[in-house]
Amino acid sequence: MMAILDNVGDVAAKDGSQETLINVFALLCSLLLLPVVSRNIVSVWLLFSLFTFIHLYGNYRAVKSLQFRTLNQSLLRIVVKDYIETRKISTVSEMNSKEPILLHWSSSRHYYGCRLSDVSASSNKLSFVCSKFTVICDLRSNYGYVSMASISNISDQLRAALCLELMLNMRAPPSPLELDEFVENLKSGGWLINKHRLVFDRWTYSEK
């Protein structure tokens, strides 16, 4: 299910209309079945279990059918790992199908939009510095920090997050050319690079 113009509100509207239809159907079923099974406890629990399973499975399939072209943290991690292993960007549908529904566990920690004082480099940390952002990666603790310049925009935030994920996976900072190539491959693969679903704090820095 693709949202119109990647609008989550469009998906919510479709989900709301689906829920209304299901509720009407459930009401009709209950009116028909209650007189038949009201005195049979076993039948009541069997039907309850059956309809609960159908409802949960239907919602699971509905969520799995969603196809978002904007990257969240889970999709970003999957896309970068797949790119490092295959040196190509998989399609939007392939990556969305790999995104876990319930568990999003990761051994690394990401801090987006930190104060510049929080991302100070040291001898045991990797760094990537450009005019729009600064990325520091601590390989020992598997922590990553991103600080954004005041002149940066949404696209720069995504580039910084991609840079951090590449550093955590490659254990080395990418070159500016590698990062540019990766972003262009993302764009060619159908992903949106001018918006994202990552959580950034509002701290920024400016050069004096």
TrEMBL record:
Its main location: membrane. Coiled coil: none annotated. Residues 3-86 form the Protein root UVB sensitive/RUS domain. Pfam families: UVB_sens_prot. GO terms for cellular component: membrane. The chain crosses the membrane at residues 20-37, 43-60. Keywords: Membrane, Transmembrane, Transmembrane helix. It is found in: Membrane. InterPro entries: RUS_fam, UVB_sens_RUS_dom. Belongs to the RUS1 family. PANTHER family: RUS FAMILY MEMBER 1 (PTHR12770:SF31), RUS1 FAMILY PROTEIN C16ORF58 (PTHR12770). This is DUF3475 domain-containing protein. It comes from Brugia timori.
